[in-house]
């Protein structure tokens, strides 16, 4: 026996493989048997028995450990139409052994479900969720094979979306194609398409606004395409951006993402801090940096406790740094090689102004919540943080009095006895311990908190009059209490509502 001997299937094995799938192609589900034209007692077949593991050496998926009997057994075969069978037997990269075993199993399962039922009724008879999912998976697999038969230059993946099948078509080779934009909203669509062709990326357009020409796959006469998504091949990339303000040390931010390219240049897009910070860089092949943008998306913080906001401190640091123009160095790492992409100045002083105000307000609420332990959550609509903003200056002065280093506390008092030399008494007062008590009620984002009892105390305080100079009975005067050198004021929460 020569080296090219094939272990072909016997006729009974071929017949059984065909019968087990009701003479349908196991891959694309096409019928493979029909009556021969012009006859009343003959039929024709376009089906073949394909080998899962090759029938001879040098064939696709050849297994040298198989015996000749195993190679020609029914377990090593599946029934397919001529086109799919040729692809299985001639293209080693088209299917793996695992793929073909899965296809065979699915085809026999479908034949079993269909047996004894009118065409198209088998799916409505399925009630088990697992069986329904299996049927959908089989449909997607077979539809993929059917589409690839239409134009073998493309790889077609089919999956089920919310509104129907979704087709992902990827060219295996260079294909000349034409994109035709409909008249509706033409200028907007043309600009979006031009940007995609220039720099790559992703472009989603309504099915009625775009038509593609150049392949039978692009013809959607059977079912109208409700949406087109054009994508160029992305390449993994890491962007490292160094921001430097004045003589300060650089702040390094690392973004993970992808780069795409088009006819005119490249576009790099990456995210950091769990997707909350995005950087998009667009550059022409000529070397010109045409666009560089930062975007901070804080929608992840909606309804979350203010003291447990992901990445707040780092993002606040970046927002504060961008309050003035900064020097920017961009490094790009792809396939392990790092290169300098460019340098320049980034000015976010105006574009980030609303965001700075938002971060400042959240920082205030975080400090208040840290002191009073109220477990405050941000509103569901982040914009309400500023819309419902409350002036907390007085409260911050109170709870930050120790860290702020404030030595003096001012308050108003009223004299009830004109004969008493209050001014003289105050001026000659010996420093002593002082405690001021406050009752505080708060309302934030439509919710009331309190009452809270807060004490501000100092071990040694001197008191003097601020004004007016003449003390009159019943007239309020401003007094100042100053901590004696070496002492300081300390705020303390002494009473809070009980938690139910």
Describe the structure.
A hairpin with a 7-residue loop joins strand 1 (33-35) and strand 2. The protein has helices spanning 11-20, 68-71, 82-90, 97-114, 129-150, 186-199, 312-321, 353-372, 384-387, 393-399, 401-404, 422-427; strands at residues 33-35, 43-45, 47-51, 77-81, 154-161, 164-171, 178-181, 202-206, 210-213, 227-231, 235-244, 251-261, 265-272, 277-284, 289-296, 326-334, 337-346, 408-414, 432-444, 447-467, 476-483, 490-495. It has twelve helices and 22 strands. The strands form seven sheets. A seven-stranded antiparallel beta sheet has the order 15-14-13-12-11-16-17. The chain has four domains: 11-125, no CATH class; 176-231, no CATH class; 236-360, no CATH class; 403-495, no CATH class. The protein is of the alpha+beta class and 500 residues long. The chain is elongated and about 130 Å long. The chain starts with 10 loop residues before the first helix and ends in a 5-residue tail after the last strand. 19% of the residues are buried.
């Amino acid at each position: 026996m020569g080296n090219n001997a094939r272990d072909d299937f016997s006729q009974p094995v071929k017949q059984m493989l065909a019968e087990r799938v009701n003479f349908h192609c196991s891959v694309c589900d096409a019928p493979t048997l029909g009556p021969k034209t012009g006859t009343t007692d003959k039929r024709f077949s376009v089906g073949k028995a394909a080998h899962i593991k090759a029938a001879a050496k040098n064939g696709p998926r050849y297994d040298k450990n198989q015996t000749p009997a195993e190679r020609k057994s029914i377990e090593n075969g599946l029934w397919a139409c001529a086109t799919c069978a040729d692809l299985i037997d001639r293209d080693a990269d088209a299917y793996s052994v695992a793929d073909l075993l899965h296809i065979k199993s699915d085809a026999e399962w479908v034949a079993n479900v269909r047996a004894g039922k009118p065409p198209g009724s088998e799916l409505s008879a399925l009630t088990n969720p697992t069986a329904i999912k299996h049927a959908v998976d089989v449909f997607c697999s077979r539809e993929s094979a059917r589409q690839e038969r239409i134009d073998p230059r493309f790889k077609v993946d089919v999956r089920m979306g919310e509104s129907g099948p979704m087709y992902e078509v990827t060219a295996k080779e260079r294909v000349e194609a034409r994109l035709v934009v409909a008249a509706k909203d033409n200028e907007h669509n043309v600009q979006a398409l031009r940007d995609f062709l220039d720099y790559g990326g992703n472009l989603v357009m309504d099915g009625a606004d775009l038509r593609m020409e150049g392949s039978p796959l692009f013809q959607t006469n059977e079912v109208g395409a409700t949406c087109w998504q054009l994508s160029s091949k992305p390449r993994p990339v890491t962007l490292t951006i160094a921001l430097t303000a004045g003589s300060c040390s650089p702040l390094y931010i690392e973004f993970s993402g992808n780069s795409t390219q088009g006819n005119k240049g490249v576009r790099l897009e990456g995210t950091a801090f769990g997707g909350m910070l995005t950087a998009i860089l667009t550059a022409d092949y000529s070397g010109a940096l045409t666009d560089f943008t930062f975007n901070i998306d804080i929608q992840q913080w909606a309804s979350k406790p203010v003291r447990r906001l992901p990445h707040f401190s780092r993002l606040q640091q970046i927002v504060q740094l961008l309050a003035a123009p900064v020097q920017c160095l961009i490094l790009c790492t792809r396939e392990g090689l790092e290169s300098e992409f460019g340098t320049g100045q980034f000015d976010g002083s105006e574009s980030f102004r609303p965001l700075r105000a938002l971060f400042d307000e959240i920082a205030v609420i975080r400090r208040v919540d840290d002191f009073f332990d109220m477990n405050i959550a941000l509103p569901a609509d982040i914009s309400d943080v500023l819309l419902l903003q409350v002036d907390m200056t007085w409260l911050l002065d109170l709870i930050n009095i120790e860290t702020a280093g404030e030595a003096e506390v001012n308050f108003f008092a009223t004299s009830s006895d004109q004969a008493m030399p209050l001014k003289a008494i105050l001026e000659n007062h010996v420093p002593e311990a002082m405690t001021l008590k406050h009752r505080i009620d708060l309302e934030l984002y439509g919710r009331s908190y309190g009452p809270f009892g807060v004490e501000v105390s100092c071990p040694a305080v001197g008191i003097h009059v601020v004004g007016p100079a003449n003390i009159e009975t019943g007239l309020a005067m401003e007094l100042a209490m100053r901590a004696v050198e070496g002492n300081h004021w300390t705020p303390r929460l002494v009473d809070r509502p009980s938690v139910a």
